[in-house]
Design goal:
Layout (H helix, E strand, L loop, with lengths): L3 H14 L2 H31 L13 H23 L5 H6 L1 H6 L5 H35 L5 H27 L3 H20 L1 H10 L20
Helix pairs in contact: 1-6, 2-3, 2-6, 3-6, 3-7, 3-8, 6-7, 7-8
Length: 230
């Protein structure tokens, strides 16, 4: 692909010079810094706000899993919405401003132009998720005293794959739809469809039928009764 590295450097410089370097990192940084603390002190905060309205109801003691759940929930909801809206004009904004037309008049590949955008912003998102997960992990360990990392990292990496998928989708929608608002609306619609498919009972049953079943446990061998000659 002719011009891929040129477009890659161009996208990296644009991230550092535009508002994208502040919005999405700011959101993830806020969640990473405040999530574990809020998870730890939620019972105290609710008790102070509600007062006697709880009627003696005791909230369960929070654990490190509550902090992990808070981080993944923030990624899959607020951060996902922000990602869709931010990248709604990833291509159409340059087309409208004339930057894309000026660049593509040179002997470079349009495929490289699109793929470079997807690759650079996917790496950008990966760096943000890794840094945010590291902060969440460290603050959770400081607040709760222990923080096994396997559950946190596996969930965060699964969401990262989902986020990269939506960056690719938003790049495609921004090419097909000339309006940033239109592409963002289509992206939100796709997110809603994916969310409904995840809780759709027939699809869940189909997934369970297609998933490999664990082999039956082997039965212990029956011992023959002793004949009395041994």
């Amino acid at each position: 692909m002719n011009g891929f590295m040129v477009f890659t450097r161009k996208e990296a410089r644009e991230i550092l010079r535009t508002w994208r370097v502040w919005v999405l990192p700011g959101i993830l940084l806020l969640f990473a810094l405040t999530g574990p603390v809020l998870a730890r002190f939620t019972p105290e905060i609710v008790g102070a706000v509600a007062g006697n309205q709880l009627g003696g109801l005791k909230l369960p003691t929070p654990t490190y899993l509550d902090a992990y759940t808070q981080w993944i929930k923030n990624l899959s909801q607020v951060a996902q919405f922000a990602l869709i809206i931010i990248y709604g004009g990833i291509v159409s904004a340059e087309t409208k401003s004339g930057t894309a037309v000026l660049v593509l008049t040179k002997p470079v590949s349009r495929t490289a132009f699109v793929i470079a955008k997807t690759a650079v912003h996917s790496v950008f998102l990966a760096v943000l998720v890794v840094v945010g997960t590291l902060l969440t992990w460290g603050i959770t360990a400081a607040v709760f005293g222990k923080a096994p990392g396997s559950a946190l990292w596996s969930s965060a990496l699964v969401w990262l794959v989902f986020g990269v998928l939506f960056i690719a989708l938003m790049t495609l929608l921004s090419v097909l739809i000339g309006s940033a608002a239109g592409a963002a609306g289509a992206g939100l619609g796709a997110y809603a469809l994916v969310s409904m498919a995840a809780i759709w009972t027939p699809l869940a049953r189909t997934h369970l039928r297609l998933s490999p079943r664990s082999p039956p446990r082997s039965q212990p061998a029956r011992t023959q009764p002793c004949c009395g000659r041994c």
